[in-house]
Hints:
This protein is an alpha+beta fold.
Amino acid sequence: MDRIAGQFGRVEPRATARAYLLGLLSSVERKNCWQLAEQAAHALPGPMQRLLRYARWDADAVRDDLRAYAVEHLGADGGVLVVDETGFLKKGRSSAGVQRQYTGTAGRIENAQVGVFLALATERGRALIDRRLYLPEHSWSDDPERRTAAGIPETVQFATKPRPASEMIAAALDAGITASWVTGDEACGQDPQLRAALETRGTGYVMAVACSMRVRINHGRTPIRADTVAGRLPATAWQRHSAGNGAKGPRYYDWAWIHIGTDSHRHLLIRRNRSTGELAFYLCWSPTEVPLSELVRVAGVRWSVEECFRAAKGQVGLDHYQVRNWTSWHRHITLAILALAFLAAPERPDDAYHPVRSRDPITLTVPEIRHLLVAVFDPPAVTVARLLHWSNWRRCHQATARRSHYRRRAADEPTG
C-alpha cells in the first residue's frame, strides 16, 4: 500500500483499496464487492463498488507500480515475457466485451469476456504484470449504444489480440525490464507485425504457431508447411530435452530445430510428445546464435502463464468480479494481479528438481503463502448481528433483482 497509496488522492478510496486487497488475499469464498465488503466489516457494498466504478484513481498508474514491484522482487535479467489470453465466462450481453467466442478456459465457444495478459517469468518466480480486455469488432466496436452503456472510452477501438499484446510488451521493455526473450501463444506467433517489432528491438522470441504455418527452408528458397518439415526429419534430428520441471519432475520431450529463411538466427522449433507423438511448433529468432537448449527453455517457460492464471483465479479472485463497466473490469483485474504479485514475491526458485527421497519440504507456493497470511492477519470474530445484517441485505437485494427480472420477462412475452 505504501507503493500505490499515492495513486489515490483521497483517504476514503485509499482505505477502501487497502480493504479490497486484504479481501482478495483472505479466505473469502467469492471475492466480489458484496463479500469483500462483509469481510471488511462495511455495512454496505457501496464503498467497494465506488472504488471500482466512480472513485478517482488511475488503474494504469497502479499497473506501473505493480510492474516495478514485480521486477524488484523477481528480477528481470534473463527473464522471459509471456503473453497469453484467458476467458471469463459471463451471462447476459451487458458486460464490456462479452460475446459468444472461443475461450480456452472452457475449451469451447461460450458467452465470455477475454483478457490478454502479460507475465514476467524469472528464476525467482513469476507474476502477471499487465492486462487488456479484448473488444470484439462487430458486436462492440461498431455499436455506439453498447459502448456507452459499458463505459468504453472513445479512444478504444477494435484491435486483434496481437495488438494489445505488442503494446504491453513494448510498455514493459520501455519501462526498463531487461527481458531477453518473449514467448506466446499461436495468436501472437502467427502475427508478422509483432514478430517484426521484437526483431527491431533486438528481443528474441519463441512463439507458438499452427502446424499449417509455412516456412522457408533451403536458405529461404523453398516454402513448406511446418508439419511437412517435421514429417521429413530423420530420427537423428530429434534430441531429448526437458522443458522445465512440473509437479512430477522434469518434463521431457523430443525436440528438433531447423534453420529457416536466410538468417542463421532464425529457426523452426518442433516439440514431440514422447508418449503420444503429438507435435507443437514454434517460430524462433534471436539476436545472436543460441543453442537448442536455450530455445527449449524459453518454450517451456511459456506455460508459467497458465500457472499464473490458475493461481490468480483460485487464490485472489481474478474471475470473481461482478462488474460490467470497462473501467471497473480493469480496476478489479489490476488489484487482483497486484495481490498475486504480493504472494509470488516471497517464492524461492523452484527450478531445482528435488529427488523423491529428499525430506526437505517443497518451496513455498502461492496457496501456502496466502494460507499463512490469512492465519496471521485473521480479522476479529464477526458478531451474530453483523452476520444476520449481511444475510438480510443480500436476500433483500436478490428479491429486488428477482422482481425486476420477472417484470422484464412478462413485458417481453407476446400477448393474445
